[in-house]
Amino acid sequence: MGDEPSLTRWTFQDFKMFYDAKFGGKREQEKEGAGRDQARACNGNSSNGSTHGTEHVMNTSGMAIYEQFRNQEKRSSGQLNGDSSNRTSERPQRPLLPLLESAETRALAESLCRDIIRGSPDVKWESIKGLENAKRLLKEAVVMPIKYPKYFTGLLSPWKGILLFGPPGTGKTMLAKAVATECKTTFFNISASSVVSKWRGDSEKLVKVLFELARHNAPSTIFLDEIDAIISQRGEGRSEHEASRRLKTELLIQMDGLTRTDELVFVLAATNLPWELDAAMLRRLEKRILVPLPEPEARRTMFEELLPSVAGEEMPYDLLVERTEGYSGSDIRLVCKEAAMQPLRRLMIQLEGKQEIVPEDELPKVGPVTPEDLEIALKNTRPSAHLHTHRYEKFNADYGSQILQ
């Protein structure tokens, strides 16, 4: 008994016999069905009247796209009565993926397709408070060339690279989402994890395939968030890996190719550290827009929207605007959230002091926010983006794009 093999250990012959016994009959039926279909396709007088002896289905490179619509065509082929002009209208006008060189490149393209925002981000220009100068420059650089391409030709060809820089929390990502909502373009939301691979050579291929996808689905926008993590300054004194240098070089080459074509492909980049970017990338990002800290009017609008006044209790908006100098939009939201938590904390103390559990429909309402709550919120929330304001202003004076009033 000890010399006999275990029941779970199968030899190749045992597995082949089991496979043939279980699936052999199905394979013979499929072969017979395929033979009948081939013989029927070779005949000129097909039963459905829509297949001709000289008609080919599709080449192997487009087979994946064709298979998505094969069932739909089979259902409608009985109603066409040999008219192939209507059938072509049911096929996709332009597949999502272009014709690529190899299966490896196609796999890279499919991984990048996950970063395409399918639906609209639903961020309107009106939902962004303040930043009028930045919004006008973005409309001029991206929105208008798509709406009125007749005017943007020759010397007035649209800018292909736009850089949004400024302190953190000022609304750079919201501006990019507003561009995607307004233009209705194919929007690629790319970060460092999208184009950096552990396999040698894949990072450069990902960048190349990304721009091929953008050209294929034009008009399109490539949004590179935190671009300083992808293409920082190059130099001999810096400890830079070879793979990182190859990635930066490929990105610069692809960016340079955009400026020499008429295709509507825009690269929209955002960073908090514009002085860390390479000089060659700054040259390709032709439009450089400062997204500054909110001005007093914008801060007042934010407070009025987040903390509306209730009947008999007027919020001290003027005092809030004065006390929040140097706060970003994200900081102002945190101040309002901290102020709204104060009445809830008082209510939680009362509820926790009771021994019995209060039913949900009998829970008391949260009281309004008082000026004392705002004072506590201002003390507990400090600004996070005011330390390098002078550096952003200096960079904007040296490299930025402005509109003269």
Automatic annotation (TrEMBL):
InterPro entries: AAA+_ATPase, AAA_lid_3, ATPase_AAA_core, MT-severing_AAA_ATPase, P-loop_NTPase. Residues 43-56, 77-87 have a biased composition (Polar residues). SUPFAM superfamilies: P-loop containing nucleoside triphosphate hydrolases. Its main location: cytoplasm. Residues 26-39 have a biased composition (Basic and acidic residues). GO terms for molecular function: ATP binding; ATP hydrolysis activity; isomerase activity. Keywords: ATP-binding, Cytoplasm, Cytoskeleton, Isomerase, Microtubule, Nucleotide-binding. Residues 158-295 form the AAA+ ATPase domain. Residues 26-56, 73-98 are annotated as: Disordered. It is found in: Cytoplasm, Cytoskeleton, Spindle pole. GO terms for cellular component: cytoplasm; microtubule; spindle; spindle pole. One of its GO terms (biological process) is meiotic spindle organization. Signal peptide: none annotated. It holds the Pfam family AAA_lid_3. PANTHER family: AAA DOMAIN-CONTAINING, KATANIN P60 ATPASE-CONTAINING SUBUNIT A-LIKE 2. This is Katanin p60 ATPase-containing subunit A-like 2. It comes from Nelumbo nucifera. The lineage of its organism: Eukaryota, Viridiplantae, Streptophyta, Embryophyta, Tracheophyta.
